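REQUEST ID: PR-0412
SUBMITTED BY: lab tech R.K.
PRIORITY: routine
TASK: structure prediction, single protein chain
INPUT:
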Amino acid sequence: MITHDRYFLDSVTNRIIEIDKGLIYSYETNYSGYLELKTQRLQMEQASERKRQSILRVELEWMQRGARARSTKQKAHIQRYEELRDRQAPVQDSQVELSSASTRLGRTTVELEHICKSYGEKKLIDDFSYIFLKGDRVGFIGPNGCGKSTLMKIIAGIIPQDSGNVIVGQTVKIGYYAQEIASEKTGDGTEIDLSYMDPKQRVIDYVKDTAEYIQTADGMISASTMLERFLFPPDKQYSPIGKLSGGEKKRLNLLRVLATCPNLLVLDEPSNCLDIATLTILEDYLDRFEGIVVTISHDRYFLDRTMKRIFAFEGDGKLKQYEGGYTDYTIRKMAEQEQAEAEQVKKNSNVLKNDANSSEKGQRTRGPQKLKFTYQEQRDYETIENDIAQLEEKIELLESQMTEAATDFVKLNQLMAEKEEAESKLEEKMDRWMYLEELAARIAEQ
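STATUS: complete
OUTPUT:
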C-alpha cells in the first residue's frame, strides 16, 4: 500500500519501502521503527562523509607537497586521492520553507451563532454556535458527506448559511486552503471558491496575482524567492500550472494561502497530496503561527500533533465538543460508550427487580406466580453461547485475512468494516447473555 497516514502505517505494516534519490531502501519494521532506522542510516552517511573529508585533507596536503608518480605505490596513492576527491557527498534533501507573517488579530475574531445548513431534506448543520478565541486550534471530524467542508466554506464566507449569523471581526484575515483544486470556472465565469487554478497560467503569475512581494518573518521577499522556498526552481516557475503534479498544485495553493498573511487559517484536508516531510514542516509552522487554525482532517497524527479541541459530527447536523487531540477524543468516546452500557445493565437490573416485586404482589392476590423466561428469551438462552462462539471465530478469521491482505488497501478496508460489524454484534450478544444469565439465576433461586 501507499499512504501518508502515519498511524495507519504504524498499526498495519511490518515493512517499509522508501524511495530516496533514485535508490530503494527496505526496513523490516513499522513506521516508528523506520524513522529510527533511517535516522541511523543518515547518521552513518554523515559520519562516513566526515571521515572522507578528514582523509581528503591529509591526502591533499601530500599532493601539494609534490607527489611523484615514479613508483607503483605512489601511483596507487594518487589514485586513492582521486577516488576520494571524486566521490559524491550525500545529497541533502530539499525541504519546503514555510514562512509568512500573520497580521494583528483584534478583540473580535469569528463568531458563529445558531448556524443551520441543509441541502434538500438532508440536514448538515443544525444550530451550531461557537466563538473562536485567539490561538485556537480547532479540528472538525466526521464521516464523508456529513458537512465538514460546507461548514469551512461558511466560515470563509464562500457559501451562505440557511439561518444564523457569522460575525467576522474587522482585523480578521482568513486564509482558506481548499480540499480540491478546481481547473474550471462556473457557467457565469466566476471562480469556483478560492481553489481555482487556470491550467494555462504560469506558476509565478498565479502567485503574483496574490502578492508581488510577501511579508515573512525574515522581511519582504519576492514571489520568485517564495516559490524557491516551496521547491519551485526558476525553470518550473515559468511553466504552466497544468504541467504540475497533484502534490505540486496543493503545495502551490498552500503558498498562495500563506502569501496573504492570514491570521485565521482554514485548512480543508491539508494532509491530502502532501508528502510526510512537507506535512511535518507544516506542523512545525503551525506551532509558531500566532493566529487561529481551523482544520478538517482524517489524519489522526496531524490532529493529535496540532489541534487542542475537536468538534465531532454526531449525526442529524449535531456537533459535539471534545477537549484535546484525536486520541483524547477517542478515549472520551470509549468512556461515554462504557457509561451508556453500564446504565443499560443497571436499567435491565431494575426491570428484573420490578418484575420480581410485581410477582410477589401477585402471589398475595392471585396465588403463587413464578418468574420464568418468555418464549423468545428461552430460545435466545439456548443458542446465545453458540452465537457468541461463532462471532468470536469470525473475528479471528477476519484478523487473519487482514494480515494476509496487508498490501491490498481496498480489500483491507472491506475486512476492517466487516470486523467492526462483527464486533458490534458480539457486544450486543454479550449484553443479551449477561441479562439472560442474571434472569436465569433469579429463576433458579425461586
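NOTES: Residues 90 and 110 are 48 Å apart (CA to CA).
REVIEWED BY: pending
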